[in-house]
Amino acid sequence: MRAVLFDRYGDPDVLTEAELPAPEPGPGRISVDVTHAGVNFAEVMFRRGQIPVGLPHVPGLEVTGTVRAVGEGVTGLRPGQRVAALTLDGGGYAEVVLARADLTVVLEGPRAIADPALAAAFPCNVPVALGLLESAARLLPGESVLVLAAAGGVGTAAAQLARRAGASLVLGAVSTATKAEYAAGFGYDEVVRYEALAELVADRTGGRGVDVVLDSVGGEQRAAAAGLLAPLGRQLIFGDAAQQDAPVQPDHLWFGSRALVGYNIGDLAHRAPALVRGHLERAAELVAAGDVRVDFTEFALADAAEAHRILTDRSSTGKLVLRVNG
Ligand SMILES: NC(=O)c1ccc[n+]([C@@H]2O[C@H](COP(=O)([O-])OP(=O)(O)OC[C@H]3O[C@@H](n4cnc5c(N)ncnc54)[C@H](OP(=O)(O)O)[C@@H]3O)[C@@H](O)[C@H]2O)c1
């Protein structure tokens, strides 16, 4: 089968095409003939060695396609069914990938998503946005939310879901005016560049601050956002795009009556799989019903490096999807 992999860490050019044997599913797993694979910022972190992975590594944390074969003990899935799956061990940038049966949804009934590219564009970012807001932040109706990297895959889903959950105010921050304009179409009350964020939060909350910050950026934006939290506000830490992790001083949390909460879908898929499954099922239903809009840009599998490049140089908006065999 055709795949894109990297056998050393580095810039997007380390992604190369290769011919590999198609994997066979073991117990509890299925194999999927992939039509499309989503591209996630986490795959950039793997590729540059920010999160070490075994080499060579075929990236790809989410796919859509048809079931090719089912492993021992798998029920409710059969060859030929159209599915979307989280492939959190990677492997999605390939014509065939293994997926856990419990992290696979059949695209039928209330989860019927006709567009295959769209079906590859939601399995990671929409469940993550649900998990962040509902399970980690425990967002209450009437609370306010601030999303950093507001124009990206997770950010554009999170704004819509925060709004649906009854948030009274949904603010976003991005690096450029073009991204601010783009993100405004996803349910935000207002999106500004990071430089203007402190003033925006002060104006829109009467100086009180925001209840929840979704922070996948880290670095100086993490430090700045900490100062924008309302009393007992929660800063959700779920990424480090800036590659500038900093030590946490717990005393600062209680001095300032605020919380830092971590969220990692990979960890939860092992330790709380039913929670992730629930979010994946609901995400499929929200997308199928058109209740959450996922805007995506398609690339050929062979152009995976270009997709990584625009994620890394911060010029991407929305979600990026690879066309593998569609
Ligand atoms: N913990 C989890 O379970 C989990 C799951 C999924 C995603 N995530 C994280 O959530 C974030 C969003 O994921 P995504 O796939 O939807 O990506 P994305 O938001 O489409 O792209 C990443 C965004 O991060 C921002 N960014 C800030 N500093 C950056 C830097 N130094 N270099 C590159 N980008 C920078 C950029 O937006 P601006 O230019 O507007 O700042 C960029 O568009 C990522 O950080 C990802 O690692 C975490």
The CATH homologous superfamily name of the largest domain equals: Medium-chain alcohol dehydrogenases, catalytic domain
Shape: globular
Which structural class fits the helix and strand makeup? alpha/beta
The whole-number mean of residue pLDDT values reads: 98
Order of helices and strands: EEEHEEEEHHEHEHEHEHEHEHHEHE
- What fold name stands as the CATH topology of the largest domain? Quinone Oxidoreductase, Chain A, domain 1
Number of domains: 2
Largest sheet: number of strands, sense, barrel closure: 7 strands, mixed
Helix percentage = 25-40%
CATH class of the largest domain: Alpha Beta
- What Rg, in angstroms, do the CA atoms define? 19 Å
Number of helices: 11
Q: Distance N terminus to C terminus? A: 15 Å
What does this structure look like?
By secondary structure, this protein is of the alpha/beta class. It folds into 2 domains: 2-122 and 294-323, Quinone Oxidoreductase, Chain A, domain 1 (Alpha-Beta Complex); 126-266, 3-Layer(aba) Sandwich (Rossmann fold), CATH 3.40.50.720. 30% of the residues lie in helices and 26% in strands. The chain contains 11 helices and 15 strands. The chain has helices at 41-47, 116-121, 125-136, 153-164, 177-183, 197-205, 219-226, 250-255, 265-271, 273-288, 304-312, and strands spanning 2-5, 16-19, 29-39, 62-70, 82-86, 96-100, 104-106, 144-148, 169-174, 190-193, 210-215, 229-237, 258-262, 296-300, 319-323. The strands form 3 sheets. Strands 3, 4, 5, 6, 7, 14 and 15 form a 7-stranded mixed beta sheet that branches. Strand 11, helix 7 and strand 12 (229-237) form a beta-alpha-beta unit. Helix 3 (125-136) crosses helix 4 and helix 3 packs across helix 10 (273-288). The chain is globular and about 60 Å long. Bound molecules: NADP nicotinamide-adenine-dinucleotide phosphate. NADP nicotinamide-adenine-dinucleotide phosphate is lined by residues 40-42, 124-125, 128, 149, 151-155, 174-175, 179, 216-217, 238-239, 241-242, 263-265, 311-312, 314, 316. NADP nicotinamide-adenine-dinucleotide phosphate binds at residues 40-42, 124-125, 128, 149, 151-155, 174-175, 179, 216-217, 238-239, 241-242, 263-265, 311-312, 314, 316.
